[in-house]
């Protein structure tokens, strides 16, 4: 994922998930060193509109408006600041080879809705209630085992651990769950795509950690499409 896309997702996630979206919007405008007047001019709105959003006097903007504001941050930085602010965040676009895709969701997705969307089958019997998915990481199990070390492990979790870790090329499912068990940060749900088999130990570990374990046998392209549908 390119740095601009990764940065845009980070900003969108922070604004939409923040209890004070206006303040978060103002924080990122300050990061890009863009005045309210210049942002309003670029968006062709009154400066009072930006001020009202940031102060909370106006209802939090919808997804499409937030998208336009983020695009304005990035476009203005490229055009008027040679992209210097964007480049300060270039590190976020670098991920391990085993990570095939990683995205944040603008809105929380109920676990049951998420499972239905990917044609999933829940293997764990004991699952806590009110679980939400706020993003996904698509992981190649074999490559990840070879390349992921303790320093890069947090890359799996993106900007929010409340996400789905979707593992490809799973043989028995033991290694992913063992890796998840020993790390203090836990995902909302673990998904195995077309596993060769699922060892009972994997299910047992998932239940011990109170993590829903799901399998899906949909074609990979279809699974990707379903995962990406929640980013829009």
* DSSP strand content: 15-25%
In the CATH hierarchy, what is the superfamily of the largest domain? HprK N-terminal domain-like
Low-confidence stretches: none
Helix content: 40-55%
* Helix/strand/pairing category: alpha/beta
How many structurally independent domains?
2
Q: Order of strands side by side in the largest beta sheet?
A: 1-3-4-5-6-2
Question: In words, what does this structure look like?
Answer:
By secondary structure, the chain is of the alpha/beta class. The chain has two domains: 86 residues, Orthogonal Bundle (434 Repressor (Amino-terminal Domain)), CATH 1.10.260; 135 residues, HprK N-terminal domain-like (Udp-n-acetylmuramoylalanyl-d-glutamate--2,6- Diaminopimelate Ligase, Chain: A, domain 1, 3-Layer(aba) Sandwich), CATH 3.40.1390. Helices cover 47% and strands 16% of the residues. The chain contains eleven helices and six strands. Strands 1-3-4-5-6-2 form a six-stranded mixed β-sheet. Strand 4, helix 9 and strand 5 form a beta-alpha-beta unit. The protein is elongated, with a radius of gyration of 20 Å.
Brief rundown of the structure:
By secondary structure, the protein is of the alpha/beta class. Helix content is 47%, strand content 16%. The protein has a six-stranded mixed beta sheet.
Keywords:
alpha/beta; Udp-n-acetylmuramoylalanyl-d-glutamate--2,6- Diaminopimelate Ligase, Chain: A, domain 1; six-stranded mixed β-sheet; 434 Repressor (Amino-terminal Domain); 2 domains
